[in-house]
Amino acid sequence: MSAVHPFSHSNVGPTLRVIEETLRDVYWCFMHADTLPGHRACFTRALVDDILDYQRSLGMRLQARTDTNGSLPHVVLASDSHAFNLGGDLDLFCRLIRARDREGLLAYASQCVRGVHAFHVGLNANAHTIALIQGDALGGGFEAALSCNTIVAEEGALMGLPEVLFDLFPGMGAYSFLCKRIAPHQAEKLMLEGNVYTSEDMHRMGLVDVLVPQGEGVAAVEEVIRANRRIPHARAAMHRVRQMAQPVTLDELMQITETWVDTALQLGEKSLRTMDRLVRAQVRRGKAAA
Fold first, then answer.
1. What is the per-residue pLDDT for 68?
2. Where would you find the membrane-spanning parts of this chain (predicted)?
3. What's the 3-state SS for 151-204?
4. Which residue in 86, 109, 87, 83 sits closest to 96, CA to CA?
5. Between β-strands 74-79 and 7-8, what pairing exists: parallel, antiparallel or unpaired?
């Protein structure tokens, strides 16, 4: 991965594998570390909680530093699974919607929103966040990637926001983050058509920053880090300027996700059966990848 000798950070939950290169100020977070045959590479409650716990821990450590020597921290979100992330936990959604459990659905969605917002604001420590997409990023998985400062994707990965297939919309940051990269009417079209695109297509749209052949994603991330290291103060200042000029606030994301929850609770059995079929397809895909 690099010339230094990184070490794994053990004080994280079982769904997350973390490698900290503290001398270089680079922190790698690999989702789905608990992958087993049939595993669905989605945002389970356990994964969301583990990401939030690590974000808080790392953010506090980075904020507490007194001598940074002009270093710009980099946090990389990646995956140990066949996919980057296939989105929200549809099985959980179905159970909560059928039970009319608004509180439970809102609690899950709110945790997801806190996670993407933390990546968006660099853990409140002015870190530069990078999504490394080496497999499909759909729904909430694509939203998580969009929340990062830089998206590096390998060719052949599929990306998109297919929630409209079950009459829902992506409500955990998609619109807010898309509108920072493309025009609002294009963002709405992407969300309401529900099409899935290749990483090559997304690069042409301006939604993927760096596109590389399969197997070259890590090297591309390292190049992004090297480029930022040449201009650490300018890059850090640009983070602050972006937050002033184009803020995406936690309050904005929370209000949108409440609309998502209320919309989800209106779904009928036909939409829920579509979710059920997608869950079964994810399980089959996980078994095939194993």
1. 66
2. none
3. EEEECCCEEECHHHHHCCCCCCCHHHHHCCCCCHHHHHHHHHHCCEEEHHHHHH
4. 109
5. unpaired
CB 192 within 8 A of CB 161: no
Order of strands across the sheet that contains 137-138: 137-138, 158-160, 196-198
In this structure, are residues 80 and 33 in contact, taking their beta carbons and an 8 Å threshold?
Answer: yes
Tell me how far apart the alpha carbons of residues 67 and 129 are, in angstroms, rounded to a whole number: 21
Question: Is the CB of residue 154 less than 8 Å from the CB of residue 199?
Answer: yes
Which residue has 């409500």 as its token pair? 171
Q: 87: which 2 tokens? A: 């989105």
pTM: 0.94
Tell me which amino acid residue 18 is.
Answer: V
- Quick: pLDDT tens for 208-252: 999 999 999 999 999 999 999 999 999 999 999 999 998 999 999
Mean residue pLDDT of the chain comes to 93
Number of alpha carbons in the 13 Å side-chain half-sphere of residue 134: 19
Is 74:228 a contact under the CB 8 Å cutoff? yes
Q: DSSP readout, 27-46?
A: EEEEE-TT--TT---SB-HH
- Two tokens at 256? 């949108």
pLDDT of residue 7: 58
Examine the pLDDT at 142 and tell me if it is beyond 50.
yes
C-alpha dist (Å) from residue 21 to 42, 130, 223, 279: 27, 15, 16, 36
Residues sharing a CB contact under 8 Å with residue 276, sequence separation 6 or more, in sequence order: 90, 94
pLDDT of residue 69 exceeding 80, the answer is no
Domains in the chain (CATH in brackets) are 7-289 (3.90.226.10)
